[in-house]
Structure formats: structure tokens, C-alpha cells
Amino acid sequence: VQLQASGGGLVQAGGSLRLSCAASGLTFGSYAMGWYRQAPGKERELVAAINSGGSTYYSPSVEGRFTISRDNAKNTVYLQMNSLKPEDTAVYHCAARPVGWAISESLWNHWGQGTQVTVSS
């Protein structure tokens, strides 16, 4: 299984970025996909997730600003990030697990490499 994340970068506060995670080696439509982030000195946190049926979860810190979506035909999950804040600065990782999402990172089976998001004030 490979998860390839892309789309990170440097953006000013208030700006937008869209992250993508392309998956291979799994039956994508049967998997929940999630986006975690880890800022320096902080624990990794689940930002958003979408299960195989399309139901979503958002961390309270991003709800209303971030949108997770998936394109099963392209084996890709997206994270649209709007109204970015400096506190959103982190390395963002995508993850996959069968069927439903989970809060605990230990329950996710597959991880991609991170993509850096930096929001300047």
C-alpha cells in the first residue's frame, strides 16, 4: 500500500491550500481515509476523516474551514483548507484504514509521508 500526499506549501493567513493523497495497493472505496497533522512539540491529531460511505469527521479546530472529500475513481482523498491560520502550520499526513474512521492513530493501518503546510501571519 502506498499513500502519496502532496499540495503543501507556504501561504499567508487567510489563504487556502488543497492537499491531495493518492492511494495505491488497496481497494480504495472500502477504506476510510484521514488527515492527521503534527506541529513541532505537539502530538499528532486527527484533523478530518471520511469513511467508505462518505460520512465525515472534523476536529473542532478546523470545522467550518476545512473540507475532506474523496474521488473513488481516482483513488484520491482531498483536504481543502480555507481561512488558514498560523496555528494550522504542521506536517500533514494521510492515513487509511478499512471502512470507518477512528480517532486513535494506532487504529490506522497505512500512512503516507507528510507534506508541510506553513501559514505565515
Q: Level of helix content? A: under 10%
Largest sheet: 7 strands, mixed
Low-confidence stretches: none
* Distance between the ends: 37 Å
Helix/strand structural class:
mainly beta
Please state the average pLDDT score.
Answer: 96
Over the alpha carbons, how many angstroms does the gyration radius reach? 13 Å
Q: What is the element string, with H for helices and E for strands? A: EEEEEEEEEEE
* Estimated share of beta-strand residues: over 45%
Please tell me what the overall shape is.
globular
SS elements, strand count: 11
Number of helices: 0
Walk me through what this model shows.
This protein has 121 residues and is mainly β. Strands 2, 4, 5, 6, 9, 10 and 11 form a seven-stranded mixed β-sheet that branches. A four-stranded antiparallel β-sheet has the order 1-3-8-7, with no helix packed on it. β7 and β8 form a beta hairpin. It is globular.
SSE topology sketch:
Layout: E1 2-6, E2 9-12, E3 17-24, E4 31-38, E5 45-50, E6 56-58, E7 66-71, E8 76-81, E9 90-98, E10 110-111, E11 115-120
Parallel strand pairs: 2-11
Antiparallel strand pairs: 1-3, 3-8, 4-5, 4-9, 5-6, 7-8, 9-10, 9-11
Key phrases:
52% strand, 0% helix, mainly beta, 121 residues, four-stranded antiparallel beta sheet, globular
Describe this structure in a few short sentences.
By secondary structure, this protein is mostly beta strands. It is about 0% helix and about 50% strand.
